[in-house]
Specification:
This protein has helices spanning about 55-60, 65-70, 80-95; strands at about 15-20, 25-30, 35-40, 45-50. With about 100 residues, it is α+β, with helices and mostly antiparallel strands. It has a two-stranded antiparallel ribbon. The protein has a two-stranded antiparallel ribbon with strand order 3-4. A hairpin with a 4-residue loop joins β3 and β4. The radius of gyration is 17 Å and the shape is elongated. The model has no long low-confidence stretch (mean pLDDT about 95).
Length: about 100
């Protein structure tokens, strides 16, 4: 399982551990991923995604999963999130006609 946020695309970064004597050794900074169950208002379903804690705060700020997905670019979304976004766009496209 990859350590990548399914909504923002944030992944591991690399850097250095720096000792007191200034010796640098490689290390990885892993994102703070947590499983979250997110509710889609338009689709009336809940989805289980692995997202970062920062993405969870961004979801609250933007007004939920639907608003976040409509604004997000497809490059940073996981295939699972892209599928939810396609379902959401299809649902919103048929809604004014009905």
């Amino acid at each position: 399982m990859s350590r990548r946020c399914e909504l923002t695309g944030v992944g591991p970064m690399v850097g250095h551990n720096v000792s007191h004597s200034n010796i640098k050794t490689k290390r990885r900074f892993l994102p703070a991923l947590s499983p979250a169950t997110l509710q889609s208002d338009a689709l009336g379903q809940s989805y289980r995604l692995r997202i970062t804690n920062a993405a969870l705060r961004t979801l609250d700020f933007r007004g939920g999963l639907d608003a976040f997905l409509l604004k997000a670019s497809d490059e940073e979304l996981s295939p699972k999130a892209q599928k939810i976004k396609r379902q959401l766009k299809a649902k919103l496209a048929e809604q004014p006609a009905a």
